[in-house]
């Protein structure tokens, strides 16, 4: 999958700069960062840097040697992922007090040759140092140093043993994700996005005041800007958590309708109006979510060059199978072997179409998306005679039972 990074302002940290959140004796964050400029404009009692400083003690500051030992010298055999930022390694760290069992973690190491890596690293530290939700990956700590090898920037997260939704959805080497599991994963991801879009105002309200209109505090909106299957990580129970906040931005405040920014993201997932104008809104995330909904339904990537020309672009291909049409079921992932609720699938497809409305203002909010997905989960449960089996075991043809009267597949 190709990523595009078109930046208006080149950023390269200077040697000896205090621009990164160095170990806590450094009290000043990067005053030149876009994050802080936006934060200072918020009509709020507290800024992002202030919120971060309140919570930074929860983050552990690692030295480079600790993380080399944790990853066996960043051994290639321990590499579990790679992206525009750099490489991710599985590692093991010792508790700070030296007691208890070692903790398995994921260590993301900045690519020293990336021009924008530091900026994204700083954004991730600040945002994940402030936000907290069961469907957002937990940042445990960071490393920020310079040595003879150059600038070293690393992040340490909780380890997610089932890797990403991308791995589980598209890999032919993995058992097929059952229908109900897919719905639960995308519902959890939606709840994480809804928290970023609409659930953060209380953190910015002064003292014990609970009503933003009386406190004068604005809604704290975070635009994720890079929602895609590879950024939805899965824990041991397939619970989803959004990761990679390097491209996240604070949303518009006051009378502003959008944030003007350089166009960055992943090809196929970015909203067309954002690509054309550079105007970033929360509705940009909604578009990306609609793309992933169709990936969930079809088991196809947004772009697959190895398919026939008419089938390469997912959003063009699915137009042949409208949600209310007779051919709708022909687009559903064949690996599900018909073991899904057709009514729930139609609901998800209609939701995807709404998320992909050309006019951003006609798209639903993430809270509305969450409610719609909850209904889809309920419909699937009502149409299943054994939901536990469907959610935990790979689908086999011998376990299929079709109720012809209701035209709903039961497992």
Description:
It is globular, with a radius of gyration of 22 Å. The two termini are 34 Å apart. The protein has 2 domains: 3-158, 2-Layer Sandwich (Phosphorylase Kinase, domain 1), CATH 3.30.200; 165-410, Transferase(Phosphotransferase), domain 1 (Orthogonal Bundle). A hairpin with a 5-residue loop joins strand 9 (232-234) and strand 10. The chain has helices spanning 34-41, 48-55, 64-70, 117-130, 165-170, 179-198, 212-215, 272-277, 282-298, 314-317, 342-355, 366-382, 387-392, and strands at 3-5, 60-61, 79-82, 86-93, 103-110, 139-147, 150-158, 222-223, 232-234, 240-242, 249-250, 259-260, 264-266, 279-280, 401-403, 408-410. By secondary structure, the chain is α+β, with helices and mostly antiparallel strands. The longest helix has 20 residues, at 179-198. Helix 11 (342-355) runs antiparallel to helix 12. A 6-stranded mixed beta sheet has the order 2-6-7-5-4-3, with helices on both faces. A two-stranded antiparallel ribbon has the order 1-13. A two-stranded antiparallel ribbon has the order 8-11. It is built from 13 helices and 16 strands.
């Amino acid at each position: 999958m190709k990523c595009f990074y078109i930046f208006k302002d080149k950023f390269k940290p200077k040697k000896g700069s205090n621009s990164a959140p160095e170990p806590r004796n450094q009290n000043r964050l990067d005053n030149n960062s876009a994050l802080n400029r936006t934060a200072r404009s918020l009509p709020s009692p507290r800024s992002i840097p202030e919120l971060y400083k309140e919570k930074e003690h929860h983050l552990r500051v690692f030295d480079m040697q600790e993380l080399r030992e944790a990853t066996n010298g960043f051994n290639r055999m321990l590499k579990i992922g790679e992206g525009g930022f750099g490489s991710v390694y599985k590692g093991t760290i010792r508790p700070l007090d030296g007691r208890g069992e070692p903790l398995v973690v994921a260590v993301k190491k900045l690519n020293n040759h990336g021009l924008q890596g530091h900026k994204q690293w700083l954004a991730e530290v600040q945002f994940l140092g402030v936000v907290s939700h069961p469907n957002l990956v937990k940042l445990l700590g960071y490393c920020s140093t310079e040595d003879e090898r150059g600038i070293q920037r690393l992040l340490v997260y909780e380890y997610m043993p089932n890797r990403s939704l991308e791995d589980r959805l598209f890999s032919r080497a993995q058992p097929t994700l059952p229908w109900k599991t897919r719905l639960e994963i995308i519902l959890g991801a939606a709840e994480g996005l809804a928290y970023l879009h609409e659930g953060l105002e209380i953190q910015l309200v002064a003292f014990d005041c609970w009503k933003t209109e009386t406190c004068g505090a604005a809604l704290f909106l975070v635009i994720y800007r890079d929602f895609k299957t590879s950024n939805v990580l899965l824990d041991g129970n397939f619970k989803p958590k959004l990761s990679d906040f390097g491209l996240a931005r604070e949303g518009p405040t006051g009378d502003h309708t959008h944030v003007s920014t350089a166009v960055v993201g992943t090809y196929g997932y970015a909203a067309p109006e954002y690509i054309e104008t550079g105007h970033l809104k929360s509705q940009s995330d909604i578009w990306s979510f609609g793309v992933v909904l169709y990936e969930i339904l079809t088991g196809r990537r947004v772009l697959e060059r190895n398919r026939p020309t008419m089938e390469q672009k997912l959003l063009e291909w699915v137009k042949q199978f409208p949600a209310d049409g007779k051919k709708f079921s022909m687009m559903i992932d064949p690996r599900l072997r018909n073991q899904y609720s057709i009514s729930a699938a139609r609901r998800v497809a209609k939701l995807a179409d709404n998320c992909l409305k050309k006019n951003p203002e006609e798209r639903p909010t993430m809270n509305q998306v969450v409610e719609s997905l909850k209904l889809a989960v309920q419909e699937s449960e009502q149409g299943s005679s054994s939901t536990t089996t469907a959610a935990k075991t790979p689908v086999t043809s011998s376990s299929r039972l079709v109720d012809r009267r209701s035209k709903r597949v039961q497992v």
